[in-house]
Write a structure and sequence with these properties.
alpha/beta, 2 domains, 12 helices, binds thiamine diphosphate, binds magnesium ion
């Protein structure tokens, strides 16, 4: 082993001493449980709206069963950190504290939505939630670009790229992983292994014991974590984030989770072997965490029902807000296509890039 490889191997040691493990207070645990319920109810409201014919377009992609991944991750992120979501992006949005009124308004394609009703890949750059999602895996190199920016600016901020077990096979993910490891980018590769990509079991697309087993090949540590346990996720992501903040580069985290809903809301999942869905439901992270918090005395008997009814009221109000919000003006389709030129910079007065439709932001051809 040459010196460089030796140094790199030592630095990749999970016991490298950079971890500042996550410890949740009772109040934080209760908030995590509440946020998991909030994610689920918000998504169910969206699915109901679609199945009732109130909302049109692509059927909703729910993250039922995967909520622990998002609340665990968001428990350790701070202001200035970024997360790049998949086509199941509602979990990170809610867990990051985005307003359910405006999330649902976007899912109802209304003007008060986070993207003005123009794309359900909800984005709130101020809170570092960047919605991509349409092309699986495509958000990962973009997240690597953000992490490079965070590194070049000398910050200790990090980015998280979510992607699925299916997306883990995409070239975009491989290339981002190679580059991120080479450049020690402050990036967490967060693979949500929900055991399916559409109707194909993950075991038919991933050879070997785990997706994370590929990590040493990229030149980064890999961790497998129980993605149905928010505290385990928080602990593992905390370690990855701490390593990234300290300048030690990326980590590949594989959260073993479970897809209880279909691929999209109208999917009856007839392709699943008998009994598999029942097994998946038995691993429901909300039920499990609720039982754990009751056993620990963090919540009293009956308190879960209070949490549920509070969230249900909140989501019913968010649905009412979304319904009342107007549709965007058709002219809006031409807005927000290009970034504003920097104030006082050379670009003032219009977008001068060639071959991009030219003219000012929102001009014809944009
Ligand atoms: C590049 C690309 N290929 C195929 C698709 C079609 N597609 C949408 S979701 C999906 C499955 C993705 O599976 P996984 O990455 O495991 O994510 P999950 O849906 O399980 O969350 C596929 C193949 C796509 N959107 N983009
Ligand atoms: Mg999957």
């Amino acid at each position: 082993m040459d010196n460089d490889t030796q140094a790199r191997t030592e630095r990749l040691s999970p016991d490298g001493g950079v971890a500042d493990r996550f410890a949740a207070s009772a109040a934080e645990k209760r908030t995590m449980l509440e946020d998991m319920v909030r994610i689920r109810r918000l998504e169910e409201a969206w699915a109901d709206a679609y199945l009732d014919g109130e909302v049109e377009g692509l059927p909703p992609s729910l993250s039922t069963g995967q909520e622990a991944v998002y609340v665990g991750t968001n428990a350790v992120l701070s202001d200035g950190d970024c997360q790049f979501t998949t086509h199941r992006g509602q979990g990170p949005q809610v867990a990051a504290g985005l307003d359910p009124d405006r999330i649902l308004a976007e899912l109802y394609m209304r003007a008060d939505g986070y993207n003005g009703g123009k794309s359900y890949h909800v984005t709130d750059a101020d809170r570092g939630v960047i919605g991509m999602g349409g092309i699986i895996g495509a958000q990962v190199p973009v997240a690597a670009g953000k992490a490079l920016g965070q590194q070049l600016r000398g910050t200790d901020r990090v980015s998280v790229a979510y992607f699925g077990d299916g997306a883990s096979n995409e070239g975009a993910v491989q290339e981002a992983a190679v580059l991120a490891a080479m450049w020690d980018l402050p990036l967490v590769f967060l693979c949500e292994n929900n055991e399916y990509n559409i109707s194909q079991p993950a075991s038919h697309a991933v050879q070997g014991s785990s997706v994370a087993a590929r990590a040493p090949g990229y030149g980064m540590p890999g961790e497998v974590v129980d993605g149905c346990d928010p505290l385990a996720v928080a602990e593992t992501v905390a370690e990855a984030v701490e390593r990234a903040r300290a300048g030690h580069g990326p980590t590949f985290v594989e959260a073993r989770t479970v897809r209880i809903a279909g691929h999209l809301a109208h999917d009856p999942q007839r392709y699943r072997p008998e009994g598999e869905l029942a097994d998946a439901r038995a691993r429901d992270p909300i039920d499990r965490f609720r039982r754990r918090l009751e056993a620990e005395g963090v919540i009293d008997e009956g308190e879960f029902e209070e949490i549920e009814s509070g969230v249900e009221t909140e989501i019913a109000e968010a649905v009412a807000f979304a319904r009342e919000s107007p549709f965007p003006d058709p002219q809006e389709a031409y807005e927000d296509c290009w970034a504003d030129p920097p104030a006082g910079g050379a670009g003032d007065g219009g977008d001068t890039r060639e071959g991009k439709g030219g003219g000012e932001r929102g001009g014809d051809g944009a």
